[in-house]
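re: that chain from earlier
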Amino acid sequence: MSEMRPVLLSAGGTGGHLFPAEALAKVLQGRGVAVELMTDTRALQYGAQFPAQKIHAVPSATPNKTSIVAKAQALAMLALGTLKARALLKRINPSIVVGFGGYPTVPPLKAATLLKLPTLLHEQNAVMGRANRFLAKDVTAIATGFASLRGVDDAIRAKATHVGNPVRAAVIEAAQIPFPATDDGILRLLVTGGSQGARVMSEIVPQAVALMSPPARARLSIVQQARGEDVTRVKDAYAQLGVNATIEPFFKDLPARMAASHLVIGRSGASTVSELAVIGRPSILVPLPGALDQDQAANAQLLADIQAATLVRQSDFSAAWLAEVLQAKLDNLAQLRYGADAAKRFGIPDAAERLADLVLKVANRTHSET
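^ sequence. v structure.
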C-alpha cells in the first residue's frame, strides 16, 4: 500500500467538511497511504493541524448571490479554480480525488473528472447539497453519511454507498463514557449551536429556565455555548435564577461535555447529529432555518424518527415550549436513557474506516480497469 500514489482530499473551510476529511486522512495515513489536501484560501488557517503532507489552495466561490453580476463573478472564480486545480492534479497525479462537499470542492473534483481520474464524493447530510449535486453525475462513486439520501435520482443513488460520517478521535473517546447516572435528580443539559445558532439559544434557553419553578431550576446543571458578546448576559441570567451554569464561547472538549450530559440542545448539522449518535445522547434539535436544501431538518428527522431526538422548528422554539419540555424531562429522567440508547444504535463509530475502505477500493478498481 505504501507504493500507492497519494490520495487527494478536497474540503472547504468549515468544520463540517474538514472534520470528516481529517478523520479519513488519519486512517489512510495509518494504512501507509500519503494524503494531500486541496482547499480554498479560507481553510489555509487549518494547515498546521490538518494531517496532510502537502496542502494546495485554489480559488473558489459560492454562486448563491441574487445579483447577476455577483453570480457571474463566482462562476468565473470557479472556472479559474478548475484550471488551476487541473494543473496541480497533473503534477500530483493522485490515485483518487475525494471531495467532502461545498463549493471549494468543485474545482478539484471537476478538474479530476476532466482528467478522467477516479473520484469519490462524500455527502455528509441526508439531503445532497447543491455543490455535490452538480458533481454527482460525473464522479466514480458516492459515499453517504446517512442511509437515506434525498435530492438525487436513481442513477446517482445507484453509485452511492452508506459508510456514515467520520468523526474526530475525541468523539470516539467520548463514546466510551457511560450515560450519566440520574440518581441525584439533576438534569445535566448541554446547549450548543455554533456561530450561526448560539444567539437563539442564548435568548430562548435562559427565558425558558426563568419560566420554570424554583425547585425545578435547582435540578438543572447547564453547560452552554454562547457568542462572546452574549456570555456575560447569559451568565448573569442564570446567576439571578440560582442555576448552576458554565457559559463559554467555545469548548475545546465539546465531545467530552456532550458525553457528560443527559440532554443536548443544538442545531442539526451532519457533524452534530453524527456525534450525538456515536456518543449516544438524546437531544432537542433546532434546524437552522432558511437553508435552501433544508439539510439540517432532514438530518434531525432521522434521529426524531427513532425517538432519539425532539425536532422543533425555530419558529416554534419558544421559551414557553422549552420550559414545558424541560419540565417533562425532569419528571422522567429515566426516559432519557432510552433516547441515548436509540441514538447510540444509530451511530457508526467506524465510519472513517469504512470510508477509507471504499476510497481504496474505488482507486484500486479504477486503476486495474485502465
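The mean pLDDT is 92.
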